[in-house]
Amino acid sequence: MKRLLSIELQKIWKNKASRVLTIAYFALLSSIALIASINFDIGPLHFDISEMGIFNFPYIWHFNTYFASWFKLFLAVIIVSMMANEYSYGTLKQNLIDGMSKKEFVLSKFFTVILFALVSTFFVFVMSLILGYSFSSYKEIGIVFSELDYLLAFFVELIGFFTICLFLGVLIKKSAFALGFLLVWKIFEGICYLLMKWLFFDTWDKAYNALGYFPMQSISNLLADPSRRLSIIKNAGNQAGFDMNYDYSVHYTSIVIVLVWTAIFISSSYYLLKRRDL
Question: Among candidates 130, 150, 132, 133, which has minimal Cα distance to 67?
């Protein structure tokens, strides 16, 4: 495992574009902390983001993991480019000539995916602790370390998404087309949602629940939008007559679904490489 990871990390670090994207990704994760400095006045009203409760424990785990997940596209570009470069530069064939099996090759990519997800999760964990202890009104240990399952959901979301990107990189070989196919895939799931409602279900909720078994939607279901948990949003919604009682919890069925898709995509990547004449 160590040898395989070392090979992949060297490839990434020696590629200027991948190196820049990796640095940019973690810089953007750090930028979440800058939200605390946002404050402005509108007439007599003063808005201070840090005083709105988004950095309170345990809410901060939900807020930070949700918004950190927006930046995963940067690493997705690296994952897809990893595979595209293997074909473009002939390093895949060279690795096989040097004695690496196709199984080891796929595992080296998967280990890199896990490493990226682990480092990202640890980074968000540390940053959230710092922000929480700086701004949270609740600092009791029992409160601070409650709802850590959002970190688990974030970790699984990254692994699932990056595994899809890896599969598309193996399948399509061209990074731009592979990333474009992600958008096509999302649109396809949206069309399936409409078809399931019209053909199989009598309510939109039932069709949406069925959509949760699709790969992209199951990943999206791991972390719900946390903005409606804010008291200011809740109060505004209640005054407007909207039902603001949403389920924000992490559902372990969604985690299992994403892990199953992860196994499917990794196995499919290996199957493609095994059958393909390189």
Answer: 150
